[in-house]
Amino acid sequence: MNLExxxxxxxxxxxxxxxxxxxxxxxxxxxIDGKKSAMSSTSKMxxxxxxxxxxxxxxxxxxxxxxxxxxxxxxxxxxxxxxSAAVLSEYFKEVLADYDEDRVYTSDIKKVISWYNTLQKxxxxxxxxxxxxxxxxxxDMLEQLSKEHDLNDFFDKKELDDxxxxxxxIP
Length: 171
What we know:
The chain is built from five helices and seven strands; from the N terminus they run βββββββααααα. By secondary structure, it is α+β, with helices and mostly antiparallel strands. The longest helix is centred in the middle third of the chain and has 16 residues, at 106-121. The radius of gyration is 16 Å and the shape is globular.
């Protein structure tokens, strides 16, 4: 899953796409409602591509965890992030069996599930073509999205054409 340019801002709900920089911060667009705003450089911002989840053997990039959720749910929304701690832990165990339960808190699981559901809702919960694991569903979704939206903010034209022309998919 390509998370380039997507950030979370402490104290602000949802996810944001970075549009550009200002003298004192960045200009962002909410993925939820599309509203653009300026974020001060004093705001605590986390790039999703830089986040990892602790497992017992390694730190797994968030993109890989979100992709595991996407595969488990076959591209559909996951459980709600407001589920009980026990339900969230059990669900996360199904997605990532070896996550470090001592270092990954329920609040972290809530964020990951909330972020996945936000990305899924706006059509960004798709396989990253660089991994070479595009499913038929991913290609169908990209074709549909490319007809309805300008995807050039997320893919360059050649990359998108390569994805859509690639008919070698996983089942």
